[in-house]
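Section 3.1: Structural characterization of target chains.
Under the original work plan, the team committed to producing a structural model for every single-chain target entering the pipeline before any wet-lab resources were allocated. The record below documents one such target. The sequence was received from the expression subgroup and is listed exactly as submitted; it comprises 175 residues.
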Amino acid sequence: MKWQQLIKNEFELMSREIEKVLDGLTIEDLRKRPAPGANPIGWLCWHTMRSCDRFLGDVVLGEQLWIKDGWCKKFNKPADFNDTGFGDTNAQVDALKIPDVKTLLAYHNAVMKPLLNYLENLTESELDRQAPYSLQSGAVKPVSERLAGTLNNLQHVGQAGYVRGIIKGQGWYGR
């Protein structure tokens, strides 16, 4: 196996896990906090996709699909490339109104397609390339560091699965 396939497999795993976590949920399920200050499933999945979209915008496409393809409008949010959920307050988490699971999954799929295509042809020299880091104005970081940070969002997918277990009970994962 080539190393590129290993990285692509991890992002495909992230994608499948998000689909599994969201399967059959209601709007209420997406917004339910398991405890005060804990993030709900919808926000966790949205934040994961926004982080992947930020990577795409900075490193691959030159702009985020969130703005370019009007996803921000579908989520009734401003066209702000910095609005990825990073550092959100409780009030900001509560303010995110996921329209429905279908829209969240459609955004998820829109982001994952170009991301997986990019990963398939990733080279070692590309990993060393300095790319914009829009979280800090004017900053750049190696693509490898940006990719590792984006892959770290698997933790949020695990958190979303844990929250689903809390609100829906055991057995949702098919075991």
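The chain has one domain: 3-168.
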